[in-house]
Design brief:
CATH superfamily of chain B: Cytochrome c oxidase-like, subunit I domain
Strand content of chain A: under 5%
Structural class of chain B: mainly alpha
Helix content of chain B: 55-70%
InterPro entries (chain B): Cyt_c_oxase-like_su1_dom, Cyt_c_oxase-like_su1_sf, Cyt_C_Oxase_1, Cyt_c_Oxase_su1_BS
Structural class of chain A: mainly alpha
Main location (chain B): membrane
Keywords (chain B): Electron transport, Heme, Iron, Membrane, Metal-binding, Respiratory chain, Transmembrane, Transmembrane helix, Transport
CATH class of chain B: Mainly Alpha
Number of helices of chain B: 20
Strand content of chain B: under 5%
Order of helices and strands of chain A: HHH
Strand order of the largest sheet of chain B: 1-2
Number of strands of chain B: 4
Distance between the termini of chain A: 62 Å
Oligomer: heterodimer
Largest sheet of chain A: none
Distance between the termini of chain B: 24 Å
Largest interface: A-B, 17 and 25 residues
CATH topology of chain B: Cytochrome C Oxidase, Chain A
Number of domains of chain B: 1
Membrane topology (chain B): Multi-pass membrane protein
Protein name (chain B): Cytochrome c oxidase subunit I
Shape of chain A: flat
Order of helices and strands of chain B: HHHHHHHHHHHHHHHHEHEEHHEH
Shape of chain B: globular
Number of helices of chain A: 3
Chain lengths: ~110, ~625
């Protein structure tokens, strides 16, 4: 059983590869963060601009949906294909989302007062 | 503990302490099995009382109120506290062995799940002695439940909340176990069908129990703090409970029946002595049933007036489930077809299961047709249908698997002779009880009535049905006698009791040591044990690692303490609306016990212990004699 922790010194090549990888990753994070801020700004903007409610509601919901996906894939690392069991995790997340959406649809359509 | 495994005899106190603190999946499996059997017997007894009441018209054996309590507790106990733990018992005992794991992913949570279930169940059953059991049916529809006097419904809500938390914890545990703890080479498409169905059923638990929790919580605040979620006179809506309940309740049926399918998919190939026909289509069908199971809940509510469109959608979705289920049935038949069939007791149950379950499925499709459902709704036809599915599908699976897996779980074999008697008496009793109820339903007898008037053409059929119930009771008593006799029989100390085992659990010699595999096995294909046997491997498996120290979890009393905390807190919550002065302190005390135990668990590092190579060798020699597991 491999319970001993092995410590390995990084080679120069490995170090440079990691450095480059981290830089790319950081750039992606910052870009996504900027997109998030922009989307949030848009959401506030359509409200402040006082458009028709029939325009504001779907647009805000759409933006929210986009943000959720962005959050999941970039900040919560679901885009990290190499992480273990990512396929299983995606399946569970999206299956849960589909079920939750069905309930949401139900409560809006076939429950009446 | 490591040293305890080698010592043989222990005093009663030490054994009790061992079971109270155990985190071993095999012991928890046994505990689930016995707790489940206990509640199965209680709920079966309730059913028997109901059938005795309905044996003759205008009977006054039990009162109307008692009858309501009996029917509610029968349904609730059978589904939540008998079928679920019995299947969890097999999942605990067998799944880690099938995938080549030493234990489940979270042994501590496994124990917590059991104790929450058990104390929740105990709490629910205390209602009989503390002013009346719940009496609004197992579905507990809000329009009835909100106005039920006494504490019955509060017991239902709090008891199920606690035991539901246990089930949810166990479900998550099994998902993680099956995904992450498989032995090298045990790919998803090499997993035995029981492991697959356990995985899908655990996933259904994960998604289905939260709606129930929400529903129960809303019911709790409605009853105790006069919120009005379900009270239409105050702007609430009673239909919301029905939706929340059935969004949970329909997947719950599949949570129970999928592991039953899995168990039969294990039994049938072993006794047909053929590879399971259509393995990949079986897996696909399981996943599809799991998915569709979430899309059909409103077929329980066709008559609430959802409207033609919603009814049509849910009717078609419901009928679609017949397709993957049909695939499974044909695959089982094709597995038996041309096999060299050995008709043992487990195989008898499997052979009895197929036609019974198909009958239940066919009546299910009948009810899926919304217009016909208006006729059948709330009649005995429904009662007959779901008993065909649950008794014909799940109970036969549990009884059959008891015989099938007893050698692995207890190192003893249940008597075949008594088993055959049990099967026939139970099977005939079952059809006698429920087949005729279809016709009672079509003749207009409503379900959940405590008595009926004579000369409506129902007298004879009800009498026959009650005779069948007595036969079923005799069958169950025979099974219990069989278990008691077997406890006294000689240990088997063998591998592959049935001689035709295929998956990994049969490769281990019984009694299974507490660490399961002395070396993690290497899986080279589907049906790994069969594969190794055919290549002449006497040990039944090849290993993925050399013999080394084994890391095992420590036992802990904390899960029991945590569960007792919630149990105490539930009493506080229950009596609070009565204005009892001690209610709030008791509630706080209970929660303090639970949170305190959680803090202890978090602060104190528990890294488990290592079983050293010498101890492993000593254990093996102690269990199997010189040379160990060879």
């Amino acid at each position: 059983m491999g319970h001993d922790t092995q410590v390995q010194a990084k080679s120069k090549k490995q170090y440079e590869y990691d450095r480059h990888h981290n830089a790319v990753h950081m750039r992606k994070q910052v870009i996504n963060f900027a997109i998030m801020i922009f989307l949030t700004f848009l959401a506030f903007a359509v409200v402040v601009a006082d458009f028709s409610a029939y325009f504001i509601k779907p647009v805000i919901l759409l933006l929210a949906g986009v943000q959720v996906v962005l959050q999941l894939y970039s900040f919560m690392h679901m885009d990290d294909k190499k992480a273990s069991h990512m396929g299983v995790i995606s399946t569970f997340v999206w299956f849960g989302a589909v079920i939750a959406f069905t309930m949401f649809l139900t409560f809006l359509t076939i429950i009446w007062w | 503990m490591s040293s305890a495994a080698v010592t043989n005899k222990k005093g009663f106190g030490a054994t009790l302490w061992d079971y109270l603190t155990t985190v071993d999946h095999k012991k928890l499996g046994v505990m689930y099995l016995f707790a489940g059997t206990l509640f199965f017997a209680i709920a079966g007894f309730e059913a028997l009382l109901m059938r005795l009441q309905l044996m003759i018209p205008n009977n006054d054996f039990v009162s109307a109120g008692t009858f309501n309590e009996l029917l509610t507790m029968h349904g609730t106990t059978m589904l939540f506290l008998a079928a679920t733990p019995l299947l969890f018992g097999f999942m605990n005992a067998i799944v880690p062995l099938q995938i080549g794991a030493r234990d489940v992913a979270f042994p501590f949570l496994n124990s917590l799940g059991f104790w929450l279930f058990f104390l929740g169940a105990l709490f629910l059953h205390l209602s009989f002695f503390l002013g009346g059991a719940p009496d609004a049916g197992w579905t507990n529809y809000a329009s009835l439940a909100l106005y039920s006097p006494g504490h019955g419904i509060d017991f239902y809500v709090l008891g199920l909340q606690i035991s539901g938390a246990g089930t949810l914890i166990s479900g998550i545990n099994f998902i993680v176990t099956i995904i992450t703890m498989r032995a090298p080479g045990m790919t998803f498409m090499r997993m035995p069908l029981f492991t697959w169905t356990s995985l899908i059923s655990s996933a259904l638990i994960l998604f289905a129990f939260p709606p129930l929790t929400v529903g129960l919580f809303l019911m709790l605040v409605d009853r105790m703090f006069e919120a009005n979620f379900f009270d239409h006179t105050m702007g609430g809506n009673t239909i919301i409970w029905e939706h929340l309940f059935w969004i949970f309740g329909h997947p719950e049926v599949y949570i129970l029946v999928l592991p039953a399918f899995g168990l039969f998919s294990e039994i049938i190939p072993v006794f047909a002595r053929k590879r399971l026909f259509g393995y990949s289509s079986m897996v696909f069908a399981t996943i599809l049933i799991g998915f569709l199971g979430f899309m059909v809940w409103a077929h329980h509510m066709f008559t609430t007036g959802l409207g033609a469109t919603a009814n049509a959608i849910f009717a078609v979705a419901t009928m679609a489930i017949a397709v993957p289920t049909g695939m499974k049935v044909f695959n089982w038949i094709m597995t038996i077809w041309g096999g060299s069939v050995k008709v043992t007791v487990p195989m008898l149950y499997a052979l009895g299961f197929i036609p019974s379950f198909v009958a239940g499925g066919v009546t299910g499709v009948m009810q899926a047709a919304a217009p016909l459902d208006y006729q059948l709704h709330d009649s005995y036809f429904i009662v007959a249908h779901f008993h065909y599915v649950i008794v014909g599908g799940i109970v036969t699976a549990i009884f059959g698997s008891m015989h099938f897996y007893w050698p692995i779980m207890f190192n003893r074999a249940l008597s075949e002779k008594l088993g055959v008697w049990t099967f026939w008496i139970f099977f005939i009793g079952f059809h006698c009880t429920f087949f005729i109820q279809h016709f009672l339903g079509l003749m207009g007898m409503p379900r959940r009535v405590f008595t009926f008037q004579a000369d409506q053409g129902w007298d004879l059929f009800n009498f026959i049905s009650s005779i069948g119930a007595i036969l079923m009771a005799i069958g169950v008593i025979l099974l219990v006698i069989n278990i008691i006799i077997t406890a006294k029989s000689k240990p088997l100390n063998c591998r592959d009791y049935w001689g035709d085992g295929r998956s990994l659990e049969w490769a281990i010699k019984t009694p299974v040591p507490f660490y399961n595999f002395k070396q993690t096995p290497l899986v080279r294909g589907y049906d790994p044990y069969w594969l190794e046997k055919h290549e002449g491997n006497k040990e039944g498996m090849i290993y993925a690692e050399p013999l080394g120290d084994i890391h095992m979890p420590n036992n802990s009393i904390l899960p029991l303490v945590m569960s007792i905390g919630t149990f105490v807190a539930a009493f506080g919550a229950l009596y609070h609306p009565d204005g009892k002065a001690w209610a709030i302190p008791v509630l706080i005390l209970g929660l303090a016990i639970t949170v305190g135990a959680m803090i202890v668990r978090s602060v104190k590092d528990d890294l488990g212990f290592h079983v050293h190579v010498e101890e492993v060798i000593a254990t093996e020699e102690h269990l199997y004699g010189k040379g160990g597991n060879k």
